[in-house]
Amino acid sequence: MFMISKEFHFSASHVLDRLPSWHQCARMHGHNYVVVLELSARAEDLTEAGFVRDYRDLDPFKKWLDDTLDDRHLNEALGETISPSAENLAKWIFDAWVEQIPELAAVRVSETPKTWAVYRPD
Ligand SMILES: Nc1nc2c(c(=O)[nH]1)N=C([C@H](O)[C@H](O)COP(=O)(O)OP(=O)(O)OP(=O)(O)O)CN2
Ligand SMILES: [Zn+2]
């Protein structure tokens, strides 16, 4: 099995309004988010060029991230029914892209240099 990944960046605000009011993250604040797409393929499924998938094929994802999430308020971008935690954001991105990128195996989301959430379906 081969695994490749590519990193993307965007900045956004959010409010974790399901948290108790004393929690600092219940206030509006922002992050410089890092998103990593992980793609996997079996050895026999590598392309002629030896790729799981050409990194260049991920250019539309970068444009979508810029258009959909960059400089946005995540509570609005994801919809009010989804709490915009890093966990939910990772799954939301995975669900939005797995049809277009069938090799997608996991989405990683970082809000701060010390934290990561990963969505990897069973
Ligand atoms: N499991 C999760 N916990 C928290 C999330 C999350 O998405 N998933 N999000 C937040 C806040 O949005 C934000 O990320 C704050 O995180 P925190 O680690 O508390 O950030 P700090 O920089 O303030 O942490 P320090 O320890 O002071 O460096 C909270 N929890
Ligand atoms: Zn936050």
From TrEMBL:
<dbReference type="InterPro" id="IPR007115">
    <property type="entry name" value="6-PTP_synth/QueD"/>
</dbReference>
<keyword id="KW-0456">Lyase</keyword>
<keyword id="KW-0862">Zinc</keyword>
<dbReference type="Pfam" id="PF01242">
    <property type="entry name" value="PTPS"/>
</dbReference>
<dbReference type="InterPro" id="IPR038418">
    <property type="entry name" value="6-PTP_synth/QueD_sf"/>
</dbReference>
<comment type="similarity">
    <text>Belongs to the PTPS family. QueD subfamily.</text>
</comment>
<comment type="pathway">
    <text>Purine metabolism; 7-cyano-7-deazaguanine biosynthesis.</text>
</comment>
<protein>
    <recommendedName>
        <fullName>6-carboxy-5,6,7,8-tetrahydropterin synthase</fullName>
        <ecNumber>4.-.-.-</ecNumber>
    </recommendedName>
</protein>
<feature type="binding site">
    <location>
        <position position="14"/>
    </location>
    <ligand>
        <name>Zn(2+)</name>
    </ligand>
</feature>
<dbReference type="GO" id="GO:0070497">
    <property type="term" value="F:6-carboxytetrahydropterin synthase activity"/>
</dbReference>
<dbReference type="GO" id="GO:0008616">
    <property type="term" value="P:tRNA queuosine(34) biosynthetic process"/>
</dbReference>
<feature type="binding site">
    <location>
        <position position="29"/>
    </location>
    <ligand>
        <name>Zn(2+)</name>
    </ligand>
</feature>
<keyword id="KW-0479">Metal-binding</keyword>
<feature type="binding site">
    <location>
        <position position="31"/>
    </location>
    <ligand>
        <name>Zn(2+)</name>
    </ligand>
</feature>
<keyword id="KW-0671">Queuosine biosynthesis</keyword>
<dbReference type="GO" id="GO:0046872">
    <property type="term" value="F:metal ion binding"/>
</dbReference>
